[in-house]
């Protein structure tokens, strides 16, 4: 009796594997939802203190919600007054007046199982402010103390580093 059951299970398993049934395709993913997932991914994985909110989504006319191939997305986010650990809804968070703006581009790889998203965000702008500050400093009379210029240059380099800093994130996605 045990032997007959074993052969029946083996026969059913063989028939199912031989049918060549492809894995079910992913759920359709509209562009707006993909951008929202990308922004969520950034807020979760970037290690920033502040949350970011969508400033602008660049339309992708070639986006196909049911495609199994790689899809590209582009959007801009801006820093908000909310902290990441607060876990508030993005709509409740106002933009910071002097918040960082980041341009993000990424790809969804739907041919992977589970689908994979890779996102790169770069800080934009900010150079105009530094230039205006430097011009104001030049107009002021110079009262130079020892090391004052050294610390200004050091601070300037730190600012440049953190403004030009690029973050790339990759993760599997579930939607």
Automatic annotation (TrEMBL):
Which Pfam families does this one have?
Cathelicidins
Does the record bear Lipid biosynthesis in its keywords?
no
Is Disulfide bond included in the keywords of this UniProt record? yes
User: Which stretches are annotated as coiled coil?
Assistant: none
Secretion signal: which residues? 1-21
Instruction: Check the record and name the Gene3D superfamilies matching this protein.
Output: 3.10.450.10
Q: Might you name a Gene Ontology BP term for this protein?
A: defense response to bacterium
Per the record, the similarity remark reads: Belongs to the cathelicidin family.
Q: What is this protein called?
A: Vipericidin
Q: Which organism is it from?
A: Python bivittatus (Burmese python)
């Amino acid at each position: 009796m045990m032997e007959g059951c074993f052969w029946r299970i083996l026969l059913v398993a063989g028939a199912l594997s031989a049918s060549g049934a492809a894995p079910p395709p992913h759920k359709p993913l509209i562009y707006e939802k993909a951008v929202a997932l990308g922004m969520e991914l950034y807020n979760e994985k970037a290690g920033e203190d502040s949350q970011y909110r969508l400033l602008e989504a660049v339309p992708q006319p070639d986006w196909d919600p049911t495609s199994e191939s790689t899809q590209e997305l582009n959007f801009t986010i801006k820093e908000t007054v909310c902290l990441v650990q607060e876990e508030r809804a993005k709509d409740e968070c106002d933009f910071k007046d002097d918040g960082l703006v980041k341009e993000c581009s990424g790809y969804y790889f739907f041919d992977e199982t589970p689908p994979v998203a890779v996102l790169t965000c770069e800080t934009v702008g900010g150079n105009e402010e530094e230039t205006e500050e430097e011009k104001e400093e030049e107009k002021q009379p110079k009262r130079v103390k020892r090391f004052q210029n050294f610390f200004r240059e050091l601070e300037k380099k730190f600012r440049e580093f953190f403004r030009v800093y690029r973050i790339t994130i990759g993760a599997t996605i579930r939607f």
